[in-house]
Amino acid sequence: xxxxxxxxxxxxxxxxxxxxxxxxxxxxxxxxxxxxxxxxxxxxxxxxxxxxxxxxxxxxxxxxxxxxxxxxxxxxxxxxxxxxxxxxxxxxxxxxxxxxxxxxxxxxxxxxxxxxx
Length: 117
Hints:
The protein contains five helices and no strands. 36% of the residues lie in helices and 0% in strands.
């Protein structure tokens, strides 16, 4: 059974994902990520440009997000996080649960729905 501590929208992401708090991101809250105002829409924009398979490296993507700098400053502008949203949410979920995101997906969806492949 999937268990995870409850997150609050006003909670600082760095409180649950300490590495995330670098480069001015220490006061970005969960709601900034969810409503696309964290300023991290470009966090992965150039990653994988030379080798598209690089973007499949989950841990490297999380590391790059953790060291990225928001632009514009968080909370100032809503910009769709097209290249980073999945990793941002997945990183928060991993750090809140203490489990890898793949494991959570398997527990919550793949096994209950008997999905193969």
